[in-house]
Structure formats: C-alpha cells, structure tokens
Amino acid sequence: RKEVEQDPGPFNVPEGATVAFNCTYSNSASQSFFWYRQDCRKEPKLLMSVYSSGNEDGRFTAQLNRASQYISLLIRDSKLSDSATYLCVVNWSSNTGKLIFGQGTTLQVKP
Amino acid sequence: DTGVSQNPRHKITKRGQNVTFRCDPISEHNRLYWYRQTLGQGPEFLTYFQNEAQLEKSRLLSDRFSAERPKGSFSTLEIQRTEQGDSAMYLCASSRTENYGYTFGSGTRLTVV
Hints:
The structure holds 2 protein chains of 2 kinds. Chain A is mainly beta. Chain A has strands at residues 4-6, 11-14, 19-25, 33-38, 45-50, 55-57, 60-65, 70-75, 84-91, 99-101, 105-110. In chain A, the strands form 2 sheets. In chain A, strands 2, 4, 5, 9, 10 and 11 form a 6-stranded mixed β-sheet that branches. In chain A, strands 1-3-8-7-6 form a 5-stranded antiparallel β-sheet, with no helix packed on it. In chain A, strand 4 (33-38) and strand 5 form a beta hairpin. By secondary structure, chain B is mainly beta. Classes of the chains: A mainly beta, B mainly beta. The A-B interface holds A 4, 8, 31-32, 34, 36, 42-46, 49, 87, 89, 91-104 and B 31, 33, 35, 40-45, 48, 50, 55-56, 91, 95, 97-107.
C-alpha cells in the first residue's frame, strides 16, 4: 500500500463547478496534514493545512477523518486559475517534520 | 524573507559526470529537506537536516548521493557518476518547526544525457 494515495485524475470540470479530491494515508500516527498546489513545471506551494475539525479558506474546504485515515479537498465555484495539480501531504514523523506527498490529482477547469 | 533559493535552475550533464546543487533556505528556518520529483509523481523524500546535522536519509539516496549543510545555513546535494535515471527535479525546502508546511525553492532540473 502506498503511504499516501490519490486518484491522479485528470478531473476536467467546467468553470463554476464544485469538485472534490480525496486522499488516504497509511500511517495512523501522522499528526499534520496539508494540501499543496503545484503548477506545471513549478515548485509545490502550500495551499492549506488540514485540521481535525475541518477548515475553510474562501472557496476551499479541507476535511480530515482520522478514523478512516482520509483527507479531502473541496473546491467550490471553480475558476480557470484553479487548474493545477493538487498534492495531498502527510507529516510522517512528529520528530523530523518529514512530509510524504501523494502522487497528486490534476484538475483542468474549462471555460 | 527572500524565500528558498536553489542554484542552478537547470543542469544538463553527461552520464558519469558529477553534479552539485545548492540550496539557501529561509534564514530563520533550521530544518532543511531535499526531495526529488519525476514527471507525474509527487516529490519523494531524500534527506533532512536540522541545523547542520543530517538526521534522516531515504533508501533512495544511494551511495552516489551526498548532502551537506556545513554551517547549518545553505546545503549542497552532490550526485557522483550520474545516471540517466537521476534525471529529475531536485527540490529543496525549509521549515521552522516540525508542525508547519514547508516552503520550497524553485528546484534544480537535472537532465542526464
């Protein structure tokens, strides 16, 4: 089993659509969770942290289910500029802060 | 805060040559990480420094790879006797504590021909 698993997509959606990405992780001891965004041939950039109670940042909502070891990202009212790869990221070690990245899910928002 | 800086941005080398990459982290960040990313994959962990101490190395880091962070500031990653399979984007990241996400540099894209 991969440490962090994501559906690579691509997800092709029209502007204005709502889209959800899911991710599962194998280390039940993981404590911190993140979503990163990566544009083509660029470095990953932190999109948002994921908290146990769920959290929202504008059109983006992240959810964590520790019992199922499952993380989700919901994007509402998709914009063309949301087209990117979204990486699910799990803190693998509370001592080192080592992050393990999923393969990424590609989103294409069409006009 | 000038961000994480990596040099060079691109490197093309012949198989068998040695290459060295440099990373300058955000100045107040004591944690520094190296990752490698190939097309269609997420970044893969290579190694981690806390200050000048290298505290963890991935099994991906064969004996041809070595990383240093001599004064706890900048870091170098050297690949000896490069192989075509080493072609990838090498990403450096830094963070202040273990509970925060990283800030990545722009990466060094290595092509081995």
